Structure prediction request, 304 residues.
Amino acid sequence: PIGAVKAYRLRREYLKNEDYLTNIQEADSILTSAESNLMGINKNLEGVYVSYLKGMTGTMGKEEREIISKELARIQESMITTLNSQFNDKYLFGGSSMSEPPFEVKNDGLYYKGINMSIADQNAANGTPEKEAYLKLQELSKENMFIDLGLSLQVDNTGKVNENSVFDLSIPGINFIGYGKTTIDGKEVPNNIYDLISNIRTELEKDDSSFSIDELTPYITIFDKQKNESLKQITNLGSKTNYIDFLKTRTDDNNLNLTKKIKSVEFVDPAEAIMNWKMQEYAYNSALQMGTKLIKPSFIDFMN
Prediction:
């Protein structure tokens, strides 16, 4: 009975570890796919910045500027496609909700989960649509999606999960693309990269008589800043992926140790078992023979 109880406990722990390993593998796949997609966007942003925007001057002709504008339009399109990409029918950058595409482009701007990012402004007055949009986006940027990876899940009396005992798999795309506005020399400049590119394209497509490098510079400045911020988000994803690799190695090692323990409890070596049985049988028969010799049957035993 003791061996059976021990075997049951080991089997139960092994099955729990298998569930953890399944979750770890899924998390690893999601993070790896997300990191790869975001690296592609950042590479395009870095390329267009270094090749065109960084060294732009006011002497560039309209035809040259239109070429840059078309390249930026291509990046815009691929960016939204990538940020709405799926893995196993789950939208990677939807935060805690991965069932619907998070980003949508409408006539009046870029939307994230139904919130107009193009009007969001943290400096707007309280109660205005601009301020409300910003506050909602700020809340969405902090979404969590906890999964149990064998970190000793803990829940308090109120049902709140201890965040140190779970893994947060949420990847809100809004943190990569940016939101809100920045004021530079009295000009409000959007922080989200999509709208930044739209504003840069508007300036580039102006006639030579209307084009001004001074008007374009604030947008390029924030573009460079947000490009670097997006790289930080990718680095954070990389850190999560490294942690997942550590958990996978640890869980694999635990399963290996549990397998060895299960075998030691449930299984025996046939040759050793037969030898032990024969030795016990021999000892038993010897005891019977010894008893027969020591206690010889009497005449009364015979009569009985």
